[in-house]
Amino acid sequence: MTNALTKPRRWDPIVKLTHWGIVGAVIGNAIVTEEGSGWHIWVGYGLAALLALRLLWGLVGPREARFAAFPPSLARATNHLGEIRRGEVVRHQSHNPLGALMAYAIWATLAVIVASGIAMSGPPPSDPAAVKGEHGEQGEVAAAILQTVIPSARAEEAGEDEGEEAGEGAESEGEEWLEEMHEIAVNLLYVLIALHLAGVVFETRRSGREVVGAMIPGGNRRT
């Protein structure tokens, strides 16, 4: 059973740009750049810009690219699972309900990755090649924020030496917390990407639609 809600169309150029740009940035920082290096930081800022553009486009872009076209809904996702079990193929205006949940999950995870990465690295270096090492200058910004938000009463009472030790402890604790959050979010992103790819393959085989073709030049369909 097929219900054609909308005519199949291509995704607009901004959606395609942000989609493949984010893919390239994730792959680049996963297997090309060194963690904490200047290039890793610059690619991270590029990822942040692409994510921001896509989120802005979700407010002002074409109808099928806007958040209103694919709101996150567990109820709709459950109904979509029922359609799959019954063998129904329903054409959705934009992402199908399961695809919508996946899109929001990926964006949220990317936002955590970007925020924690920027907090650890600070501004992008003027010379990317000059910043090397496992973590570069990560943690300095986070530590400063942490020391402001969580002042140490003991440091004020115990004098300069103990204050320095407390500050170093807060810096280390803040850096470790950010690194752990960053790593967890990155690993979660890999899981979501694997599920996303599996969903694309499944939907293509189930409905016969060129899901990938919607995201490449010359493609004429979408999920």
Characterize the overall form: elongated
Distance N to C terminus:
17 Å
Q: What's the story with the biggest beta sheet?
A: 2 strands, parallel
How many domains, in number, for the residues? Answer: 1
Strand order of the largest sheet: 1-2
Helix content: 55-70%
CA radius of gyration: 22 Å
Number of helices: 7
Tally of extended strands? Answer: 2
Enumerate the spans where pLDDT stays under 50 for 5 or more consecutive residues.
1-6, 135-155
Order of helices and strands: EHHHEHHHH
Structural class designation: mainly alpha
Which whole number gives the mean pLDDT? Answer: 80
Pfam families: Ni_hydr_CYTB (PF01292)
Keywords: Cell membrane, Membrane, Transmembrane, Transmembrane helix
Region (Disordered): 154-176
Protein name: Cytochrome B
Overview of this protein structure:
- This protein is mostly helical and 223 residues long.
- The chain is 65% helix and 2% strand.
- The protein has 7 helices and 2 strands, in the order βαααβαααα.
- The protein has a two-stranded parallel sheet with strand order 1-2.
- α1 (13-32) runs antiparallel to α2 and α4 runs antiparallel to α7 (160-207).
- The two termini are 17 Å apart.
Task: Summarize the model shown.
The chain is an all-alpha fold.
Descriptive tags:
223 residues; 65% helix; Di-haem_cyt_TM; membrane
